[in-house]
Design brief:
Helix content is about 30%, strand content about 20%. It has one domain (about 40-250): Rossmann fold (3-Layer(aba) Sandwich), CATH 3.40.50.150. It has an 8-stranded mixed β-sheet with strand order 1-4-3-2-5-6-8-7, with helices on both faces. The longest helix is centred in the N-terminal third of the chain and has 14 residues, at about 45-60. It has about 250 residues and is of the alpha/beta class. The site of S-adenosylmethionine has 23 residues, from strand 3, helix 5 and helix 8.
Length: about 250
């Protein structure tokens, strides 16, 4: 009789055999006593997302297991590498990858349907400069990226966590900036954008105060949206609600 293979179960999402798709909680980060910037979501993987994951995950996906430092030169064929944290469904990521094939994009999110969506877009667009990392960006930065490894970092519309008791979950905080600065080469730019005014103010305040960064905006405020940043899905929802969007571009000293 054939044995039923034991596969990890990702609640509310898709199961994948080891190596075939993203692992649920690859670094076991729920064991860490740390406040996380995301909440597990129970959205389902569609058939086309599953197909893209099965086809592309083995070559273009990686689990953030915290076990080894990534060889970015090998992963991206020697291209400069930009990290995008929280790509959501990945439409903007795919557009930026298509517009700049000489830059590698290491795109990280915890959301399986989005990972499948981005891999599908990359597959159909022939975008071999995108890699999809599954798990917590903090563990990726802390355990799996070497000092000065990154040529840029993008954080577009991070979860705003509007309630005061949730503010500690916001990603852009002094400790995060200290970690991220060590992984960026001097001169590399950290680009943040948000449609949540109080979060924009917080970003400007902590980035301005941080000794590792300097503002690229001459007046020390927000920057105009650079042409290379496409409209993102989350941004579109914010604009529909009448929100104003702010970009912040800070250079690593
Ligand atoms: C509000 S959505 C924005 C998505 C996309 N950038 C956009 O503008 O449409 C924020 C995303 O960040 C992801 N995220 C939050 N914290 C994260 C972390 N520590 N590591 C990886 N992804 C994270 C969430 O899963 C979510 O998909």
């Amino acid at each position: 009789m054939r044995e039923t293979p034991v596969v990890p179960f990702h609640r509310g999402s898709q199961r994948f055999a080891p190596g075939e798709g993203p692992a649920p909680d690859p670094a076991g980060s729920h064991h860490e006593r740390r406040i996380r910037s995301f909440q597990p979501r129970r959205s389902r993987v569609t058939a086309s997302q599953e197909e893209a994951l099965l086809k592309r995950w083995p070559d273009w996906g990686l689990d953030i297991d915290g076990r080894s430092v990534l060889d970015l030169d090998a992963l991206f064929g020697g291209r400069p590498v930009v990290l995008e944290i929280g790509f959501g469904m990945g439409e903007a990521t795919a557009q930026m990858a298509a517009a700049d094939p000489d830059t590698g994009i290491l795109a990280v999110d915890v959301h399986t349907p989005g990972q499948g969506n981005l891999l599908g877009l990359a597959d159909r667009g022939g975008l071999d400069n995108v890699r999809v990392a599954n798990g917590d960006a903090i563990i990726l930065l802390r355990e799996m990226l070497a000092p000065d490894a990154l040529d840029g970092v993008r954080v577009y519309f991070p979860d705003p966590w509007p309630k005061k008791r949730h503010h500690k979950r916001r990603l852009i905080q002094p400790e995060f900036l200290t970690l991220v600065a060590t992984r960026m080469r001097p001169g590399a730019v950290l680009h943040c954008a948000t449609d949540w005014e109080p979060y924009a103010e917080q970003m400007l305040e902590v980035l301005t105060a941080h000794p590792g960064f300097e503002n690229t905006a001459a007046d020390g405020g927000y920057a105009p949206r650079p042409d290379f940043r496409p409209l993102t899905r989350f941004e579109g929802q914010g604009l529909d609600k009448g929100h104003r969007v702010h970009d912040l571009l800070f250079r690593r000293k």
